[in-house]
Fold each of these.
Amino acid sequence: MGGKKEELDKISVSQRCFLEMLKESSGNGKRFCFILGSGVSRSSGIPTGIEMSEMWVREIEERYKGNETEKTDLMEKLEIKDISIKSENYFDIYSLRFFPDYGNGYAYLERKMENAEPGFGYYPLVQFLTTTDSNLVITTNFDSLVEDALFIYTKKRPIVVGHESLAEFIDVNTKRPIVAKLHRGLFFNPLNRKEELQELSEEWKKVLRMVFRVFTPIVIGYGGGDRTLMKFLADESVELNGIFWCYVKREREEDGPGDEIVELVKRQKGYFVSIAGFDEMMFMLERMFQYENPDGWLRKVAEDKIELYNRRFEEFSEKMDEIEEPTEEQREVKVSLGDFADKEKAALLELIEKDPSADNYYKLGNRERVSKNHEMAVEYYTKAIELGLKNPSIYNSRGNSYRDLKEYEKSIEDYNEALKLNPKYAYAYNNRGNIYGDLREYEKSIEDYNKAIELDPKYASAYNGRGASCHNLGNYEKAIENYSKAIEIDDKYAMAYNNRALCYKKMGEEEKAKQDFERAAELDPKYKK
């Protein structure tokens, strides 16, 4: 027993030594990939393979209580010899527990994984994936925790390879994060039975041989209990660019890395790294690389999403309100919008009686603005600001209502305040550009539209506004270029078609003008001539 411990110590490095190396090597361009097993998902609320095995064995014993012969016969039928709690027995235990309908097994896994949220350790992990050249995760897990964390914390959308038939799409030269799921993703009929996991598919073997020539693997939370990835790694023909195998020390020596893993690490001239756990190790990585607390960034992302939804809803409501001769279907939408507004306002007024908070006054202001009650909207926005709500959105919203009341100076003051709080607020630049357009200060309006488009290249309204300012300055070619871009982004933008038609008319291009007038009228009857 002692001999194994001494052997393990000879090929081990401390966590600090490992992380120092990781930082220095990453800075020098060396690429690492993570091999993740079920141990990394535990803090996210997903049981490990061992924990699920323990529960399933208890359920098996309860099911066959008093009828041991039936259980023995079934184990023999399924060619299962051992259901003691070991990593390598997980798949046999699964097969016995959910026989004969393995759809119940998939349903169980789906329930456990569908609502899981990435645990703490995933934040440092995805920061590392997106700020270094080490952008690859290889996992035997079915869950979507890595890709969820990437979108939550970095807004990066990874390449997710959830089936062996997609393995060839892995490109080691891409900068985009890659998540390779060797046992498939949760919704791709995941491999979870012993007979399905005797050999890694040829597609994966080919890709992994290529990958390991570029990336040095770091193994975390993986016990090698399957016969797919572990069998591949143990194959003497597989050459790795080194390997670091992280494991949690246990009281019993036999609970540490198995002999096959020790031999693998020795043969590949790798090292073991003793860690306290996935979250704990990732916390130390976060300290080593000095990643910032994401609190402020997450708040801004949430505010931006809320603002975007409110903006889109407001634009939708205004578009419906402007339709003077609605079709039957459009009339139904307009009536429903009115009913929705009345019910939401009543609910908010009732809520404010119990909780007169700044946030509730802000919501009520939004409700009144959409309903065109701009004076009341200003009153509620102002109350929310007096109660301490001072984010960019509320100043922008109040600025919009001031504009509709034609109080342009107050409107500009509010947009200025919004931009002071968030200098990258495209919506406020666009809205201030609209005011300058109203005031016929077209050069200023173009400057603001330019900034809005720089921050949001898909901002159709800003292109339309910039087109209108160019139009009013007599620069018809530039105006048409902008109107056309707005239409390219939103091909149902009736106002942009009408504006482009007016521009074509001034340029004497009657046929083009006619086509655009007809399209505008088709989209919105108010443009009928």
Note: The first strand starts at residue 12 and ends at 13.
Amino acid sequence: MAQKMPWSPYKFRTTLTRKYDFLVVGGGIAGMSFSLKAARYGSVALICKTELEEANTYFAQGGVASVTNLKVDDFGKHIHDTMVAGDWLSDPAAVEKVVNGAPDGIADLLDWGVDFDRNEQGDFDLHREGGHSEFRILHQADRTGAAIQESLAQKVRECKDIDLFEHHFAVEIITEHHLGKIVTRRTPGITCFGAYVLNEETGQVDTFLAKATVMATGGVGSVYTTTTNPLIATGDGIAMVYRAKGEVADMEFIQFHPTALYHPGDRPSFLITEAMRGYGAVLRDPDGEEFMHKYDPRLSLAPRDIVARAIDSEMKLHGADHVFLDVTHKDPEETKRHFPTIYEKCLSLGIDITREMIPVAPAAHYLCGGIKVDLNGESSIGRLYAIGECSRTGLHGGNRLASNSLIEAVVYANAAIRHAAERIGGYDWRTDVPDWNDEGTEHPEEMVLIRQSAREVNQIMGSYVGIVRSDLRLKRAWNRLDILYNETERLFKTSKVSREICELRNLINVAYLIMRQAMERKESRGLHYTISYPPKVRKEEK
């Protein structure tokens, strides 16, 4: 039995201690890519809070960006497009790393069984999306994310060196704090030794010790009511790392996808891929008039932040809940062939997209910030890596260029395993990590309080921290969230930990980070648009 801590705010007593070379938290494209490569170097535990097939990756429709047609495209164009979309806030080194590494990432996906659509000549059937100067989006119809998730999940399940733990929820990462040391944000050399993980079937928390730990927990879409993310996107990894005193950056840059299907009551919202605008679909106001010419010369193919704000402006101007995306002028059979999933979804709601316009509205879609990492994917906490949407690599800057995220996950998964594999032999497991004691706690009697608090977080964020912000709105949101934070921390300290209370706690943590970092940015830049600091025209925009 591991020794007890003299004092701890954590209330679990674990029943099992497991040891792995690599602990991976999150089962999307980032977590699975890392796991498949890590299995060559040691034992791997892959933690998923639901089933492996449920992840943000699954819901990605558009595709994967990579320079493949060298007759018209080149890496320099892709790099420039990424920098422009990121409002020149992207880290050039990270941009070059992902763009130059994309072809190798595509090769990995092909090796893992992902099929991308090809034309009659056998070449990739490339799409173009907003912000891209060339056709460079590889895809499988309009279900690219699903195709990737299914292919990689099959490979993971077949790999004997990966132990898959579904319906397991990582509660906290283990650092020196759990060994009785006082840890602050100024403490140097903080190290991660693994994580405490709730087994939802038994209700117990196990200790997973690891030589290297990887956060691949996805985004934060569920902090908003209207989101294209699955509802499991509660920012768990970011919140855990922040509480462990790790660095988190650029949380103010929340990307709202301009065109989510408007159908009240749906949560998550169904995504209408940007590839449809690349295909030729036109945005129209409630009167059926094209409006993007008023906002950007690239019209409907402008970057997402511009399009989302334009739609938001038109909705307010017309007092409407949505605008329209019109693809009725395109060949009906070609539309069905390119977008079968969208066609069937809309048809199920009585909308024939070959004859009728699609009602759309912006929805929270992607987080450009997160756990700050270096070019190896390593965080400010030693032996802890972060990859995928939960990480802040510097690639996206102020706004993500369409279809850059999936390839970023693969490229950084490869970088992280190369770095970790070179060092894993010099690490060992900590044998003095204590069990997590749950003495004095009870199961919360009123789960309705947790659900209601989560709804209040959604309402606060949607009302005050949305597409358009102001200092006054952010301050009002801060004051309201502070009440919820204190209530939830008191509940957490007296309750037996459940996934529900942990997700609420994490949502509040990431909402706080979004607000705080939005308040600290005294300018309108990229996805952070505030009427308190109107945007300025910079030299590179002239």
Note: The chain has a mean pLDDT of 90.
